[in-house]
Amino acid sequence: MKITMKITATGLAAVLLVSGAAMAGAEDAAAPDAGGNGPGISYALFEDVVPHIDLEQCPAGYAGQDVFCRLTLAHDQLNLVVFSEEGDQPMIATEKVDLDKTELVF
Fold this sequence. Notes:
The two termini are about 15 Å apart. The strands form two sheets. Strands 2-3-4-5 form a four-stranded antiparallel beta sheet. It contains two helices and six strands.
């Protein structure tokens, strides 16, 4: 996987320091909705409560899909979070990022 982002080293350090606590709080908000459909968190909620890094583009596995991606850090794990461009922009996927197999381009 290749992840491309624009962020300064200082900005990245700040995000990584606070992401764990905020993402832990957002995990409760990410429970499935009443219909059992998906994680039940909109991008608007995520944007407000989870420190994250905006990615210029999603990794190649999401090419051609109407999605956008963010990176977070929770429980000492870097995570890719994928949102749909449609409707309320719901979270549609999360992936743990294996740093041994991922090229981070700043």
